[in-house]
Structures are given as structure tokens and as C-alpha cells.
Amino acid sequence: MSVLEQSFRFQGEYMASSQEVLVVVLNDLPEYQRLLAGRPQTCGMRSGRVFLTPSESCGQHSTEQNEEMLVFLSGQGELLIGGKESFQVGQGRISYIPPNTVHDVKNTGSELLIYIYCVAPVSGN
After folding, report:
1. Contact 74, 30 (CB under 8 A)
2. What is the structure's pLDDT at 3?
3. Among positive and negative, which fits the CA dihedral 8, 27, 56, 79?
4. Which residues have C-beta within 8 Å of that of residue 75, sequence separation ≥ 6?
5. What pLDDT score was predicted for residue 8?
6. Stretch 68-80: mean pLDDT, rounded?
7. Does position 91 have pLDDT exceeding 70, yes or no?
8. β-bridge mates for residue 7, sequence order
9. How distant, in Å, are the alpha carbons of 8, 45, 91 from that of 18?
10. Average pLDDT over the chain, rounded to whole?
11. How many whole angstroms separate alpha carbon 50 and alpha carbon 117?
12. How many CA atoms lie within 13 A of 75 on its CB side?
């Protein structure tokens, strides 16, 4: 476990799972930071912080059998769905992307676009 991550374990009435409660500290570096790596650290959720420079995109990809939430911390950009629909995103907004959805995020502003993604498997898949 890195110095940027603290782990707490609760017992009894507080938790119905054997998973640990984690607190992860965001670093000050303007580069990708993995926050949650998935199993066995979590029940399947993965998360990270992304930095996109002006005109940069994360690259078109699919959520596959997962749902995804994006939490925009700063900047402005565009969420592209299937190469056909687009939504304005940026600081103070979140987006939900359902399973099996092709998408991309592009920085359309003049500052860094910074967001956190959370990807979780859909139960029953």
C-alpha cells in the first residue's frame, strides 16, 4: 500500500462485506493517477483521475459490461457518444455512461480538463 493510500477495516454493524474501506489521497501531479484498481482491492469497481490537455482526448472506447460515471473537476470538454452525439461537460458536472456504450472525452477548452472516472461491473453480467 502506498503512502497516498490509507486502509481502514470496520467490523460488525457498519459493514456487510469483508472488503476494506479505503481512503485515497489525490496527489499534486498533473498526470494520470489510478485510484481503485478493481479486484481484490474492490468488489470490481475501478477508478482513476485523468488529465487531458487542450484538444486531447482519452480515445474512443466501450464501457463493455460496465457502467461508468465521470466526475469533472476542472476545465471544459465534450463527451462523445458513439461518434454521433455530444454533450458539453466540465467543472461541476458528472456524466453516467451505461454498459456497452462507445464513448470518448475531448478537452475543448484552453486549460486542463481533469476528471475522475468510476467503472463498475453491472450485477448479473
Report:
1. no
2. 45
3. positive
4. 52, 90, 91, 107, 109, 111, 112, 113, 114
5. 56
6. 98
7. yes
8. 22
9. 11, 15, 35
10. 88
11. 8
12. 24
Q: 456524466: which residue's cell? A: 95
- Give the closest residue to 96 by CA, choosing from 123, 60, 72, 77: 72
Q: What is the pLDDT of residue 9?
A: 54
Give the amino acid at 22. L
What radius of gyration do the chain's Cα atoms show? 16
Residue 102, C-alpha cell as written in the block: 462507445
Closest by CA to 121, choosing from 48, 20, 59, 39, is: 39
User: Would you call the peptide bond into 54 cis, given omega within 30 degrees of 0 as the criterion?
Assistant: no
Ranges of each domain in the chain: 28-121
The values of phi and psi at residue 38, to 5°, are 90, -160
DSSP-based three-state secondary structure for 2: coil
Per-residue pLDDT, 123: 78
Place of cell 459493514: 15
Answer for the pair 79, 70: CB distance below 8 angstroms, yes or no. yes
| Domain spanning 28-121, CATH architecture | Sandwich (2.60)
